[in-house]
Queue: 2 jobs
Job 1
Amino acid sequence: MAAAVVASTARWVRVRAGVVEAARLRCQLGGSRFGRLFLLPSAAGDVAQRRHVAHFTFHPDPENRKYGQTQKMNLFQSITSALDNSLAKDPTAVIFGEDVAFGGVFRCTVGLRDKYGKDRVFNTPLCEQGIVGFGIGVAVNGATAIAEIQFADYIFPAFDQIVNEAAKYRYRSGDLFNCGGLTIRAPWGCVGHGALYHSQCPEAFFAHCPGIKIVVPRSPFQAKGLLLSCIEDKNPCIFFEPKILYRAAVEQVPVEPYYIPLSQAEVLQEGSDVTLVAWGTQVHVIREVASMAREKLGVSCEVIDLKTILPWDIDTVCKSVAKTGRLMISHEAPLTGGFASEISSTVQEECFLNLEAPISRVCGYDTPFPHIFETFYIPDKWKCYDALRKMINY
Amino acid sequence: MRKMLAVVSRVLTGASQKPAGRVLLAARNFANDASFDIKKCDVHRLEDEPPTTAVLTREEGLKYYKIMQTVRRMELKADQLYKQKIIRGFCHLYDGQEACCVGLEAGINPTDHVITAYRAHGFTYTRGLPVREILAELTGRRGGCAKGKGGSMHMYAKNFYGGNGIVGAQVPLGAGIALACKYNEKDEICLTLYGDGAANQGQIFETYNMAALWKLPCIFICENNRYGMGTSVERAAASTDYYKRGDFIPGIRVDGMDVLCVREATKFAAAYCRSGKGPMLMELQTYRYHGHSMSDPGVSYRTREEIQEVRSKSDPIMLLKDRMVNNNLASIEELKEIDVEVRKEIEDAAQFATADPEPPLEELGNHIYCREPPFEVRGANQWIKYKSVS
């Protein structure tokens, strides 16, 4: 699995004519008319090249010296670093999941078993419901449980444990018991070749459940700080890691532990005309859309990384929309019931009179995540740009 | 020079005519069938056992050989196409386990039902789909069995319910199919397969309970290839006697590398289920040569010596070949001819799979629901919609 990600991301670093070709095809999709678009056999020659281009370009943040010495790390290395710091600091911390002992299918736990022992980093059999239920038990008893679900797509057998047990433990026991020490990590999001069961983004399912926290980082620096905050946080947290960024995202990350507060969205770029909100990989897509808008339309965009999905930072987003008057939210998950609908609904409640145009949601289609159609499914920068243009001209 | 060419051409034409005559001549010298001793199966909660001898006719032998060889070549071809990046996504190969799919198919009727997990290419073939549709589905083309929308893990055929990506999720489905079989009273059974990794999933045990309680005609089959992805069975399971895991469900442990052993055990289990006595559990002890999927080299959790040992001592195709040749059921040349035929079929199928066009973009929105009037699938933004036709 990891090797496939390596191979594909290595190919994706090339930005070639394939992008233009794909863009031309995708621009034809815009418009409500049902287009008769067929993949021409003649295009089959450059299909291979077209597929090798990622839909985003990773934008690393400038080096942050506030937390001491930094080291060049990619996303999975920053996760390993965060877990290393946690296990060092907290003697009750344990990491468990499928295949975590040898390092994990995405190398997030490499070296931890050798360093901390097999009673603290251990494999579980293939049973997600068991993993999370077991994790809840570990946390209720006072230890820090860091559970790994191998892919977010596999989290559904554990859905009952998370929603009915973990989220409600404190509430139903009147604060006598809690499983705040539980953190669940799962690789999340599209990866170019994942198809139905290795590409899903289930944050919307869990957003509907009070009692848990959901966090999605956009980069290695963010991931380490947010993961450490999740582990410290006295509430059960789900930490989704964009798997496409495991190797593609490289940044300077502090070696020592540091904490990025949860439930605080970050304004990456100030602007005055449109607010763009996203999380995870999609942040990099909308950053590119913002620069495209500036060049081609002279539009100034305010880019916000939501970071924490639940509880989300309503104030930052609403303050921004009050300033700009237009909002576009983008995520890979399907449109209907996706988290953008919650944001959209709240913003129109809070900022109704400030809005200049309807809130635009650029999301995946309401279909299962396709295998062969992935490039057409994901909300790439062209679809976002198209929506932005229509919003500006509303 | 010209004389030499004439001689060469005469020899060659002569040679191409010879084999037919030789086979005709030789067929008369072949035995019609032979009886073989097969390994005794361990049983759990059963008084009877599957037989320890099996009769193999020449015709059956050639058929099993051809099917196993086709599955083997097809998987190797898929491996090749994957490395050429013509197949993408996830691909879980079945080579080494051919005796399981062929033996199981030989022990049941085409009207019986089969459901398995993601290592499904072999079963897709034995359940009746041509190789070209399987390879086209792997490459994601419109000629594929699921129109290119499913990929490696989602292949379906008549009475074959896939092809399921989520581990263990297919087992309750299998019990449901068995209930339908019982309800329809057509004397059909359902084979529900899963792996040694899935055997630790909770839903399997829920299914055991339901199947035993309602005496469903379901054979639970655990294909134990010793490794759940990269975890060996000793490290994953408290009890590696997978055939006993059904507890109150009788079980048999079968040598999954011997096609005759699998066939006899399947016939035994099928007869048991058809008689209304309830479900049965079969553990097939088998081995896969490739890694878990194409991104797994397959050697970080097991040694190359182990793989080599299984290949040289227990390869299912080799076992069948030796049996047939040593007992005068077929000649080596005949089997070689079958190999050539199979190779050609696979080449043609690969050619088709590579050249076939991809499904049209309209398919993106199709088949979400059943037979609704065409509706619009909401898409990337309020101005992009796809029509969904079901």
Note: The mean pLDDT of chain A is 88.
Job 2
Amino acid sequence: MASSYDYDDGSLESRHGRPPSAGQGGASTDLGYDPNFVPDSVKTFVVHLYRHIREKNVYEIHQMYEGSFQRLSDRMFRDNPWPSVEAIAPYVDNDHVFCLLYREMWFRHVYARLSPTGRQRVESWDNYCSLFGVVLHGVVNMQLPNQWLWDMVDEFVYQFQSYCQYRAKLKNKTEEELQLLQQYDQAWNVYGVLNYLQALVEKSAITEILEREKEGLEQFTATDGYDYEGGTSNVLKMLGYYSMIGLLRVHCLLGDYHTGLKCLAAIDISQQGVYNVVIGSHISTIYHYGFANLMLRRYVEAIREFNKILLYILKYKQYHQKSPQYDQILKKNEQMYALLAICLCLCPQINLVEENVNSQLRDKYNEKMTKMLRYDDEAYAVYDELFTYACPKFITPSAPVLEEPLTNYNQDAYRLQLKLFLYEVKQQQLLSGVRSFLKLYSTISIGKLAAYMEVDEPTLRTILMTYKHKMHAVDSDGKVIPNADLDFYISEDIVHVVESKPIKHYGDYFLRQVLKFEEMISELERIKLD
Amino acid sequence: MGREQQQVSYTVKQLVSVNPYNPDILSDLENYVNEQVSSQTYSLDANLCLLRLYQFEPGRMSTPIMVQILIKALMAMPASDFSLCLFLIPEQVQMQEQFKTLIVLSHYLETARFRQFWDEAAKRRSILEVVPGFEQAIQAYAIHVLSLTYQKVPRTVLAEAINIEGLSLDKFIEHHVAISGWVLEKSHGHSQLIVLPRNEFNYPELKKHTTDGVPFEDVTRIFPILS
């Protein structure tokens, strides 16, 4: 396949763009790293963080989590892990939950800046099991920043995906690594991952909370999930909420788009909600939602959502330049432009795309989009390239078969999804030809159109019916929704073309102006009274 | 007997929504596929759940069950259930003869090549006849596509799409004239024309321009001002 993008999961390159400085053998064997040495700044860090957590000072926790942790990592732990949890435990009263939280951050740092060993991957899994176990037992009484809680779920799914890729590459594994895979076959098993996410969703009763909120019986979105008055813990609730997005993500990795969207059903993405408070969760939600809709052939829905989020990122990305998620935001931004380009070539509805987003899209993909619309061999290469660049890192969830011959099968899942996607593209091959002809006529006989398109009449009839079928997707309720900007109907032998006019939103415009003027009038009246 | 079946499907639906990530329910789901076939019912969620479990435990994959699921998915057209199922079936499995046949049949249906579809289906009757109601489901899909496309469809086109000719076709058309609002006409060339009922797809002027209207919630924004 003509793909220049290296699909292989270099867990570093795909996340923070930094090459591994330590070898594959793991950072802890590096010279000069003593896991038991705790620099003063780290001592201060953990002591203060522990205190803020106990005092439920969410603002301070957030500052330390986003700010201090990153600064210390940049300054002192570029090439080494943080001190081991055993070393810092004495400074925090050996608090069990704090240690689990610290370890979670510890492993996340290793994944982000170094290269985790097989053993570290397994230990991280154990840590998540303990951490989620504690949360699910309802014993946690903290309020943590949403950013942290989102990062936990996001990282959990990411490490699962990374592990599936890791254990599917058997060819160059050492004897020791293979032993480890065999011994710890329960680590990151797909049932465990899915069931933890499901358990968090259920135990937190988040779907009931969202339902009650719709009826005005509960405050959730208004307080971003925090409990300012009562001070009850937000941890289980928010982990449950974010786990819905986690489930969508895992199902996309498995290729089950329908169920993935069902997992997200409780969140209404046409409204503002807690999912867009943390920009990482907002982007991840929409990216996976859009991708799932693309694979379900609901192109209009995908285009609408990609358009909204790309506009949002365009407006607000400058505010996140200092944030550690900035690289990820930019990466997902580029991927979504690629997906938008694909959607628009399969379903030309450029009127759904906002002006600024459209100009960005043209800058990046004008040439490629022209190629894709031609539907020749070159076009398939471009579809292949963009899909490969923008798709999730699909996984093979089953346990590896550790017998000879050992192969690398980490790309199998991706190849299947790509193949089926290109198959769909191929089926739509003849439609752009029809579209360009239909644009020129208001009525044309079947005979004449067949002659122009150089096919016989029965073939033309099938092409026209294919157009109708492909341009009318079926949504989750079984309703048929039209996708096309250009429509037609056939009466016996004549094709009548109907072009949909661009929709002018008079009603919305008037409403907005009424409200604006009302605002101005009240301003003026206030001045008069003064 | 009917109530027993209802109880089984109720339990399976519960399993799928409450405890789907559990290898123990695999055989229940397989039984449910057989039940869907025999009682001519269908559940996409349950079948996707089973295909996922096969992904997790490739050793327990059952080709006959998967074939049945795919045939049921074909019958759900125009919904894209068939591709949704394919996304979950490993490539090597899809290379097997029966799967390749079904993929070809799906391709013909997706590209409205009805004549080729019925020809191929006739050759592969042995695979397809395990699932009752197959023919009728595909005929319903064919009529759906025709209704999207045509205001007036020539008899020959209809005949090819639903694979019925002669007297049986007359009876079929009579039935739909009575029930679905079809009307018969004579075309210029004295051949039969079937006038299909009006819908927003073959009569675009009927398309409700919902976007011309304003959603009620938006109007409520100016209520404080109006009062």
Note: Chain A is about 60% helix and 5% strand.
